[in-house]
Amino acid sequence: MNAPLVPAAAGAPPRAMVCPECGEPAVARPPRTLLRYAVHGMSTPAWSHRDGEPLCPVMGAGGYRPAEPVAAETV
Ligand SMILES: [Zn+2]
Description:
By secondary structure, this protein is mainly β. The protein has one domain. It is 7% helix and 23% strand. The protein has 1 helix and 6 strands; from the N terminus they run ββαββββ. The chain has one helix spanning 35-39, and strands spanning 17-18, 25-27, 48-49, 57-60, 63-66, 70-71. It has a 4-stranded antiparallel sheet with strand order 3-2-1-6, with no helix packed on it. A two-stranded antiparallel ribbon has the order 4-5. Zinc ion binds next to loops.
């Protein structure tokens, strides 16, 4: 399972994370559509869009997977 890549510097406020594909805010909460991942033997994403949908899919080594969120300021 991928750990959220949120900087954990002491005293630093948490960064706003966004989906790199659509730019919408990402929340550190598994998507509501968990069965889809279990069926395909994939780990459950730790992040989702605010509406509960997984982050936009990106092509990876094993096919499409939900994108990893990025810090808002880098988009
Ligand atoms: Zn997205």
